[in-house]
Structure formats: structure tokens, C-alpha cells
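hey team, just a heads up i'm posting the complex here instead of the shared drive bc the drive is being weird again. everything in one block, sequence lines first with there labels, then the predicted structure for the whole assembly after. its three chains so it's a bit long, scroll down
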Amino acid sequence: MSILRKNFFERSTPKVARELLGKFLYFKLSGRTAKFVITEVEAYDGPYDKASHAHRGKTKRNAPMFGEAGVWYVYLVYGMYNMLNIVTGPKDYPAAVLICGIKLLRSPTPKLHFGSPTPDLNGPGKLTKFLKIDRKFNNKKAIPKNNLWIEDKGVKIKKSQIKTSPRIGVDYAGEWKEKHYRFYL
DNA sequence: ACGATGATGAAC
DNA sequence: TTCATCATCGTA
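-- predicted structure starts here --
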């Protein structure tokens, strides 16, 4: 058993983000389970990160970021895209990792038509639209019971496979926009 | 380069 | 109660 739990997520956010690459996202739909590999993530780390929702303090929306690690934080941007994040760091330290890219490895049902056999879902808005992940998952633990969780299958990712860059769409974040908090394979 | 589309948070 | 803004994406 290799389900990633609180102890994995309750650490330095950039470290967790980097280590999430090559881990597996599972999504259960009507009894069947789809498996994806995580290919792109972004770290949003702490109260001083100007790109983070937590920068202006705790609000109703960002409250999950201040809670226990290993819990989903899902919110709507631009009126149409749900963003899927996993909460990181200690309780009361607001941080999360945005899941930006995944690749489908196994389809949940033959019936459920995913278009391409192994679609590359590159973009945080695309993957949630594809999976129909919305705020029903907000503030829910990442465990099988909730139909959305992450596993470590022991696949080793070499450092040379990991690229970094500034985060996307946060040009307003001053000096924080330069930080290499985006990690991708 | 821009519009779609609606929740959010700050100001009034 | 109003208003600008927004961790995006598809079309042009």
C-alpha cells in the first residue's frame, strides 16, 4: 500500500511539489478507477507568497489551505475553471500544490470515452474539466473513500527529468513571480 | 490579442 | 451593494 497521506504532504511545499512528479493520481468513477501520472505542478507556499490566495490572510475560500495537509483545495477561476490543489505544510501554515498536468494511463470504463487513448491533460483547467472535478472535492481528504487520491508506486524520477520555471499566470506577484515554483517532466 | 463567465474580496 | 480582479483556455 502506497497511498500518500498527511505525513507526505506535511512538509516543505516546493519539496512536495517536486516529489509529486511521477506519482499517480487515481480517480474513481462509478466503481471503476482511472489512473494518471502527474506531470506538472506548481507550489504556492506560505502567507508571504504574493501569488498565493493566502497572501491576503485567511478567508472563507482559502481556509482549506490553512488546514491539515493531504486535503484537496478546489476553487473556481475566471468563472469557468476549477483548480485542483493538494494542501501542504503544517496546520495553520497556508500552502498547497496546484496539479497542472496529468497523463491518463488507464481508462475507468471502456464506455467512458476519453477521446485519445492516453490524453495528455496539460493545464490545470483542462484536467478538472475532463474529470469533472469541481468544488464537491473541496476540503475533502485525498483518500480512496473520496474517489480522488495519490499513490507512490516506487517509480524513480531522475533529477535530470525534472524541469522548473516560474509559475504561469501570476505576473502580478512581484518578486514572487520569478521563483521557480513550477515543476514538470 | 481577446472574450467567456462568475465567485471573491475590498471598497464604498 | 458595487466593482475590479482572477493560480485559464480556445479561438483568432
